[in-house]
Amino acid sequence: MIKFSTLHNDRVQAFLLRQNVLLAINPQWRVWLFSTVIWILLFFEGLQAYSSNYVVTHVFLCSPVYVAGEPNTFNYSAESQAFSKSLEPLIQGFFSWIIMIFAMMFPLLKRSIQHVATAVRRRNQNGSIVLFLVAYTLPWAIAGIGFMLIPRMASVFLAAYPSNLLLLIAACGFVLACLFSWHESRTTVMMKCELTMPIRIDGMLRYRDTFKYGLTIGINCIKMCWVVMLPLMFASHNFLLMMVVSLIVLIERYYVPHDSKIPGIAWLSIASFLIISCALSLH
Amino acid sequence: MYLAYFEQIVAQTIVDLGGPADWALPFWNYSDSSNPDALNIPPAFTSPANQTNSLWMQDRNNTINERTVTLKALDKKIYTSASSTEIGFGGLETAFHHGGGVSGALESLPHNKVHVDISGAMGDPNTAGLDPIFWLHHANIDRLWQVWLNQGNRSNPTSTKWSGFEFYFHDKDGKSVSLICEAVEDTRKILSGYTYEGVPADIPVNEEALVMTKLKSFPAMPLEVVTASVKAHSLTGQKSTVSLSLSSDKKSSVRLKGLAATAEVGGEPTRTLLRFENIKGKGLVPIHSVYINLPEGENSTQSYYAGSLALFGLENASTSDSHNSGSGLTEHFEITELMDNLRRLPNWSDDKLDVQIVPDREMSSDAEVTIGRISLYSE
Predict the structure, then answer these.
(1) How far apart are the CA of A201 and the nearest CA of chain B, in angstroms?
(2) What is the pLDDT of residues A200-212, one digit of tens each?
(3) Contacts of B251 in chain A (CB under 8 A)
(4) To the nearest whole angstrom, how far is the Cα of B83 from the nearest Cα of chain A?
(5) Which residue, B91, B164, B224, B287, has fewest beta-carbon neighbours within 10 Å?
(6) Predicted ipTM?
(7) Do you find a cis peptide bond into B42, omega within 30 degrees of 0?
(8) Between chains, do A25 and B252 touch, taking CB under 8 Å as contact?
């Protein structure tokens, strides 16, 4: 019995040691877990909204995704257009935007999180990673104001036109994303996502450098990803579309060469789908 | 891969000019300790030293330093580093690029060091291929890969990201061709096949030993930073010193004193790494020797030698473009044994560590180098 329990303890200890090593080598896993939880919450909230069939004004997670009484997620009824003009959804939308950044962008930060974690002492890792993520989110939050206002202003100016025009604009946005994807400048912009900077390890200098690094990566990330985030907003950041866009961006980031044509083809496919969807809804 | 096609193209040209059909690309074995001239560029490339010699290039150093050709890389048992504080034979998993980030062990030493030590066209990745000695140098690097494998308990990566990565060339007929990494693992199967003199390519793989090596080679806990410089440091072509404080953080200071105690009682010295990060600059920078706690007035003593900084690809790595993020270069030095020895010396201090950086040759006036951070990592 004693031998068995000793052997069992040794195996448990070896297992735990390996897990510790894996977690130390992959500090980004903790952040990815956070993003995964966000996705799960978004999924269940979307499911609830669909089954309830009402305009979702959920404070905590999603901005209006589905329209009252309409199963088609891309119809813009008069009620939703009027609703979209009020201030309340703007505040909710801003919060939803931040949630969207947590879900969509944090999984792309493997290299940067590893750099921060390696640069500082182990006992400062979690705090530094959080500070980095806060600084990273800040430029996205500021940019988000513009990202939300542009579609809202467009919907006001285009109120006299068929409501699906916004969908067409979103489709054009994805065509633009395709063209950017195939442009020679894209790989230069994408390489900046891999940037590292020196981070001091003691005192205020650590906070300063970590914050500065987060801001820099956030700004670089906007330069790379604005071209898909904006059409997503015109499409009222539909949950399914958000998932598909996230998947494509992940594949682009980690699984294909930087000069691959695949992401561009994917953006064109989305644009085509939106145009077809728009055309069908007109009939 | 490009060596094979280069050899094919040159061999065909030689045949077309009426030369022998059995010409093969030679390699420069600069690490051959039995050859007193091993550190000199082969005479065909240096004599006559003028334009009449198509193998001669100007601004080249004809003799390289012994330190730049040591074969510590062969001691590595793993190919791919698991973390940025582990230095594998081949380095970290990265996209294909010509500069930036952390180099693998073989790429760092002797590959980068030889490039920078020879200098001239060889000192810049954008022009290195123009120097004929480039091909002999890289043939040797290719040979060392086989030497590494032949030691046993070593294997190439099995990840398809590595084995399936495709490179494009032109063959002797000018046709566009490609090869994936998997296709070149056995040199006898590349084009018409080749082996290196004295380096067999058919060492049978001991599957059981390989499995045991893989099981035992579970990644180690990454090293943790103990201390780091508080500001960037510029190299001016003169000897410079950076002091790393060991007492700013009480916990680190206690740890370092504890490490010394471990060494004294005969235990394994704690693995320690000296790291130079975010090195940016421009121009051709000579190799800089790095010492720790070098006594005042001394410029070169092996007892304090940590490693050599060879900043091959510095300008490329410092520039943001389609291949580089602009983060600069990173260099590591394993200084476990050195630290263990330094602790026993009378000038050892528990409060600070002095890192001296000494240029091996004169630095040109248009060269600039800034080191973002110098840090000490330990278990």
Answers:
(1) 7
(2) 998 899 999 999 9
(3) 123
(4) 6
(5) B164
(6) 0.86
(7) no
(8) no
